[in-house]
Amino acid sequence: MSDKFEPKFDAAGLLTAVVVDVSDNSVRMVAFMDREALERTRETGLAHFHSRSRGALWLKGETSGNTLAVEEILVDCDQDAVVLRCTPRGPTCHTGAESCFYRRLEGDRLVAQGD
Amino acid sequence: MSDKFEPKFDAAGLLTAVVVDVSDNSVRMVAFMDREALERTRETGLAHFHSRSRGALWLKGETSGNTLAVEEILVDCDQDAVVLRCTPRGPTCHTGAESCFYRRLEGDRLVAQGD
Question: Where is the Phosphoribosyl-AMP cyclohydrolase domain (chains A, B) (predicted)?
């Protein structure tokens, strides 16, 4: 089965991108891509996003060096979300954690994984 | 380390939710939660979302029976996205596929996983 890729950007021109580490399938981060970010990602093989706060294209790791090499892109049924299966270079989170999802919810508290 | 849970809903009152199968860490679907969906999910243990198209609370599996039992909620660094680690009942995608992300991008085509 083969279908045409026709990404469905939302009213803000964005789709949701979930970054997964290919080595263990763990979710590293969630961000948004506009058409430009998607194109740059596919051209360069490095994950690019659209920063909603800065309103600008953002190469993940541009400052930190902690880039994400995209090995595979999965697309969901209605084509408004993608999973980027990546080989991360260094930690992904700006806090220094491997993943932005380094805490679990317990009651009304966030507890670091492993604690 | 413990921090207070203070979810950061966006301008539309939503945060992004990534559903992961606890058995193999695979991403099953991506959806959005408003405060109500988050509360209902935590009260019932079943994943609820906010349907952007219908503008309404949505219990995943309400019609199909293919619910998602939430085992753990991970929260990201800036608290605007969550990972719901779930035990899925039946396939998650409305197409009947286990995951909504059942296709990978190759060129400008979507190819079913396994093909």
Answer: 29-102
> Is A27 in a helix, a strand, or coil?
strand
**Does the reported pTM lie above 0.90?**
yes
- Amino acid of residue A70: V
Q: Do B76 and A110 touch (CB under 8 A)?
A: no
Specify the pairing of strand A81-88 against strand A15-21: parallel
Are A114 and B82 in contact, with CB atoms under 8 Å apart?
Answer: no
pLDDT value, residue A52? 87
Q: Is B11 helix (H, G, I), strand (E, B) or coil?
A: coil
* One CATH from 3.40.640.10, 3.20.20.70, 3.40.50.300, 3.10.20.810 for A15-89+98-112: 3.10.20.810
Is the Cβ of B46 closer than 8 Å to some Cβ of chain A? no
Q: How confident is the model at residue B114 (pLDDT cuts 50, 70, 90)?
A: confident
CB environment B57-90: b (16+ within 10 A), e (fewer)? bbbbbeeeebbbebeebbbbbebbbbbbbbebee
Q: Which fold has domain B15-89?
A: Ubiquitin-like (UB roll) (3.10.20)
Interface predicted TM-score (ipTM) of this complex, two decimals? 0.95
| Nearest C-alpha in B relative to A105 | B73
